[in-house]
Amino acid sequence: MKAPVVLLRFCTGAPCNLHRLNERDNGSPLRHSPPAQAINTVTATVADITQKQVTRDSPFRRVARRFFRDPLAVTATIAIILYFSLALVAGICGALHIPLPMDPNATDLARKLLPPNTVNWLGTDNLGRDVLSRMVAGSTISLTVGFVAMAVSLGIGIIVGAVSGYVGGWVDNVAMRIVDALLCFPSFFLILTAIAILGPNIWIIIAVIGLVGWTGTARLVRAEFLTLRESEYVRAARALGQSRMKIIFRHILPNAFAPIFVTAVISIPDAILVESGLSFLSFGVPPPQATWGNIIADGKTYFLDAWWLIVFPGLAIFTASLAFYLAGDALRRAAASR
Fold first, then answer.
1. What is the pTM of this model?
2. Which among 121, 131, 195, 264 has the fewest CB atoms less than 10 Å away?
3. Domain assignment present for 67
4. Are 72 and 129 within 8 A, CB to CB?
5. What is the full DSSP assignment across 301-322?
6. Number of structural domains, the chain?
7. Is residue 62 part of a domain?
8. Same domain membership, residue 135 and residue 30
9. CATH code of the domain in which 202 resides
10. Are the C-beta atoms of residues 252 and 228 closer than 8 Å to each other?
11. What range does the domain containing 238 cover?
């Protein structure tokens, strides 16, 4: 409790009585120290305490604390980690040619359309292929499309929205008219048309979904930049002669990161649903590669006799999409709390 008083008296020229303080506080680092060294010690101590307080109360920690207090958010996060782990294991096994416990493409007509049992936990399809193995393999496709398409749309949307919102003028008008024109058309039919012309391929699907889905992100980023570009710290950076790109990506964009991150999380299930719809309509990844959508497409003919071909892949699509939506909504509420 004496250190701030000593520092204040030293800075104002008042007598600070360091020798009396040293006599009383024998264990203090100020004992037998010259005044300059004592002031350095006090300053370092105060700075260390301040830094610890700032770190402890950082915005990221506050948002994370609010997020993990929500039981639904924790449940959604566990589900996302589970799906991501399954997709990662299946992707690594496929890349290294390590066989899964049951080959998702191995056919056995003697075991076709078997209900769930101790060998085939989720049953088999019309060609005798194990449904569980195909769903695990299909999770790699669905989550890859979701994450990569999100990254493509997020990158385009951030660049267009940031430049449009900060520069303004005719640049803003042209960019927003392009966004309005794209929003006039149903995005799914644009994707369907592009896939029909270019052909079904996972990378074409990812590119088309990303190129069509950036409009919402661009509008959000533009709105954030219109609000933040007149802030005092932006004016100060502009007065110091910093470039537009530095102001955009170093000063404004980090302060608009929270709503952008929420939008990114929510856009992942949108891409998963689009890919599943394309695969169900036979415009997705071509067989024999398994996806959740084409498993349902293969089973629609046998729905009355083999309900598991529809129910289990449908539950996978539903729970994965719901987990991302719940996580995004909880993150939005945690970031908006004051």
1. 0.77
2. 121
3. no
4. no
5. GGTTT-THHHHHHHHHHHHHHH
6. 2
7. no
8. no
9. 1.10.3720.10
10. yes
11. 80-336
What three-state secondary structure class fits 261? Answer: helix
Question: 268-302: per-residue pLDDT in tens?
Answer: 999 999 999 999 988 888 888 889 999 999 888 88
- Label each residue of 90-119 as H, E or C: HHHHHHCCCCCCCCCCCCCHHHCCCCCCCC
End-to-end Cα, the chain, rounded Å: 32
Three-class SS of residue 13? coil
Indicate whether 18 and 111 sit together in one domain.
no
Q: Are residues 150 and 85 in the same domain?
A: yes
- The dihedrals phi and psi of 70, each to the nearest 5 degrees, come to -85, 120
User: Is the same domain home to 18 and 145?
Assistant: no
Please spell the DSSP secondary structure of 118-172, one letter per residue. Answer: SSSTT-B-TTS-BHHHHHHHHHHHHHHHHHHHHHHHHHHHHHHHHHHHHH-HHHH
Residues 99 and 147 grouped into a single domain:
yes
Q: Is 273 helix (H, G, I), strand (E, B) or coil?
A: helix
Q: What's the CA angle centered on 318, arms 286 and 334, to 5 degrees?
A: 125
Sequence letter at residue 51: Q
Residue 44 has pLDDT above 80, yes or no: no
Is 122 among the domain residues? yes
200 close to 194: Cβ distance less than 8 angstroms: no
Quick one: 233 and 175 in the same domain?
yes
Residue 328 in any domain: the answer is: yes
Which residues lie below 8 Å from residue 76, measured CB to CB, with a gap of 6+?
A: 322, 323, 324, 326, 327, 330
Residues 146 and 34 in one domain: no
Inter-axis angle of helices 308-336 and 257-280, nearest 10: 170
Which residues 6+ apart lie within 8 Å of 66 measured at CB? 333, 334, 337
The Cβ of residue 191 has, within 10 Å, a number of other Cβ atoms equal to: 21
How does pLDDT run across 81-106, given as a tens digit for each residue? 999 999 998 888 877 777 777 888 88
Quick one: 20 and 103 in the same domain? no
